[in-house]
Amino acid sequence: MSARALFLLSPYRMPGQNTVSLGNDDAAAFLNGYLALWHPAALLGATAPPIIGSPYDYEQPQPGHLYALPESPPLILPDDWELRVATAGAASFKASADRKSTLEHLLQGLSGFTDVAAGQSALLQADQSKVAPFLGLGFGYLIVDTLFEAMQHEKLLNSTEFWAEIQQAVAALADADPEAFRKPLQAAAERLLAAREVLYPVTIHLVDFYLGDEDRLDSLCPEVSQPTNVIAAASLVEKLAAVDADRLARLRQKVVEGEIEVCGGPYLEREDALLPVESQVWNLVKGQETYKRLLDAEAKVFARRRFAGHPHLPMLLQFAGIQRAVLLAFDDAVLPTHRATVINWPSPDGKQVEAFARKPQGGDNPQTYFHLAHYLHQTIMQDHAATLALLHKQTVAPAFYDDWLELNRFAPVLGKWTTLSKYFNEVLAGEYASAASGDDFHSDYLTERTGARDPAPVSAFADQVRWRRQLDTAWTFAALHRSLTPQTLETEQGVPLEDRLTSIEDQAEAAAGSAYAQSADQSQLAKLDAALKGIQQESTNRLGQRLLAKATPGGPGYLVLNPCSFTRRVALELSGIKSPLPIIGPVKACQIDGVEAKLVVEAPPFGFAWFPQGGQVGTPAQAISMRLADQNVVRNEFFEAEIDPMTGGLRGIRDHRTRVNRVAQQLVFQPGSTMRASETRVTSRGPALGEVVCEGSILDEHERVLATFRQRYRAWLGRPLLEMRIEIWPTQAPVGYPWHAYYGARFAWRDERAILVRGINGLANATMHTRPITPEYLELRSRNQSTVIFPGGLPFHQRHGSRMLDVILVTEGETATSFDLALALDREQPSQTALGLVTPVPYIATPSGPPHVGNTGWLFHLDVPNLLVFNLRPDPDKADAITARFLECANHSVQAELRCVRDPCKASFIDARGNSLRDCTVQGDAVLFEALPGDLSELLVNFSSPFDKPAT
């Protein structure tokens, strides 16, 4: 009998120091051919491990040799090579990309041997459970052998003893003990481990990622034997609980035992980077509560399948109690790149989280296993802790992954699988990164939404920010009422307002993640919108009644409430006021147009302003100090805006001092159009409101109508905003790539050197991005001037050169036709203006008034303008306490003073979960604290008791 020798014929070699360009099928056929030679029936009697040889060196087969021939790419062999094999008493088989068919071809080839080794017939029928460990050892041998070559190191594996143990294992398959073959395989695996440890004597960390899939909920609990990381939003786990309680129980058990770590954090995977800060915090807090309820463990590592990152995400994660994150994009998002596997990822305020930043290799891609030695060589040579990550998506992992697992059941030759929490405990950060800019993060949300056929791919964000501000207003008024009345006031149904607010908040925020999908129930959205307006009005009425409990009997009036931390001059249009109001106190302007009054009223921060429903008999109308509107101009004391009578667009807006045009505007259809006005009319000249309305058409190059439009310009006396309402009715809907086919508002400016700044979570970020996404504001800074565009929650913008920018309004599928924008000049705190623009103006009609403390007053007062308070809330655990959540938005630290309606007894900073962080100083009615640059903080204020101090 001739000695058995095993060969894989291929012109390629396993890549070590460099990659090799092979197709997936080519790589799979190569590996399947080599590993099939480790089948016990092929190993029996073999004198050495399989050899990878060139086809040119084996054109003449030798007796007893077994050849594996990959089907792809085709080998160049003599035409009569198969005849030569049969004549020589050798055998061959075809290796394909499919493991099962390759093994079938192997067994057919072995059965044709003219010189059959003793015992081979039984091995041909060996069970797969006994074959798999041999293939695993073969996989390990191939990678370790290649790794020695890649690292240019002498091969120190004792091949003679290693091969003797492999042959002992083959012989042991005939033993009466079905597990006897494992002992020599164990010894062989330990030799491989010892050889690899010569090259790298410490642990190689292996991190598996499985992406949770809403359409395949079984992906949340993969049937694996090694520690695994599953990336799944809390809502997916909640859905799994609803449809498969048994699988959820298995997942919970594996999480408790440490076999699976669920990485996530958010409740919903949505476009959080484009949503208000309060919405982002809700998503994280709600997610952690859901994980805890369903899995008995919170998510310790933040991760998302659809990444929605921004520079301030580490700050939000710390605020929600999450210290670790996966800084990877599993979609097409653009993120900062880092060389280290683990980095300290900071936000602009200095808060840091540990982040895993190593891009994973495709666990379902044969190329990963073909290049495995190369990847191991790279991480061993470059990282202070060798790490290899694999990403498993929807497809099933190839057989080579199972070979790897079989090898690791004997010894961690090629690394040790771990969960991310254990990994972070063992590996220190290798890079202390600097804070990223807004341009370092980008994702094409617009294309994604239009591709999903959303009926509101653009306007949904403007709706959401207004929904959020309605909620925040209701929460603020509930907290102001709590500060005046230290107990929970229940409704007639017995359900506290705070509990119903929590329920509606959950519904509204969940709608931001799903309501604008194609299958959205529009009737449910309408009910939700009505519920939001209703509960906001209820909270307004409740606070108003409390403020008017000891009202001075001065006659009927209106009570305007301010949910913002800064003074607001609000514009009101009220019916029923027929006589002019005196311009005193909170009333800054009054204009009577028939049965409707147009008013400008100033309300203090977190306070109220009361004014009568009508003036006394003989009160003169307000004198017109300046004409607020002419045929083509609207103006007030802050600016003058000129309208182009030919186009109906904005020809320019300028301040009264320099008279320099800052910015112009037109409506456009991309890729090309002309705006033409058919009518321009003045609808109000003052003294409170100047208004001009333009109507016309958007035409193509052949003068055909693409859309009709109405554009309204408003300038209120005492308000620094040029309000623009744009209405578009397309006759030709945009179709195709949304960045190339849309209706938009194009703004243009003169100075090519002007710096474009966008607001991101309240902070200004200079941007050079062609598509600077932001729903807050865009600021043009030139020398000592600034012009601010407020898109009112519309997030998608596109630059054209250095002097033009489009605010995208209508893309394919968009159903909204009305959009509200604004312009302002030289605003010191544009984030405040942006917040005020989308905040409702709550007011109630009162039968008497004013409140006993006067026409105006505040309940809380913050003495610094660069702290943006999103809302106040009643503390859920204390009957006489409220919380205030705020963000420093000017990027410098301040010593702040929050004065309260009653003397606090204690104040402290807490995180989003209510955990106490540090105490603050209390002096009389004031809480003293320091706000750090760009920091998001929450202040818990406990009031003294009994209630004994009236509103200021």
Keywords:
nine-stranded antiparallel beta sheet, 21 helices, alpha+beta, 47 strands, single chain, 7-stranded beta/alpha barrel
Architecture overview:
With 952 residues, this protein is α+β, with helices and mostly antiparallel strands. It folds into six domains: 5-199, no CATH class; 205-440, 7-stranded beta/alpha barrel (Alpha-Beta Barrel); 456-547; 557-615, no CATH class; 633-838, Beta-galactosidase, Chain A, domain 5 (Distorted Sandwich), CATH 2.70.98; 859-943, Immunoglobulin-like, CATH 2.60.40. The protein has a nine-stranded antiparallel β-sheet with strand order 25-26-27-28-36-33-32-30-31, covered by helices on one side. Strands 21-22-23-24-29-35-34 form a seven-stranded antiparallel β-sheet, with no helix packed on it. Helix 1 packs across helix 4 (99-111), helix 6 (128-150) packs parallel to helix 8 (182-199) and helix 19 (497-514) runs antiparallel to helix 20. The longest helix is centred in the middle third of the chain and has 26 residues, at 459-484.
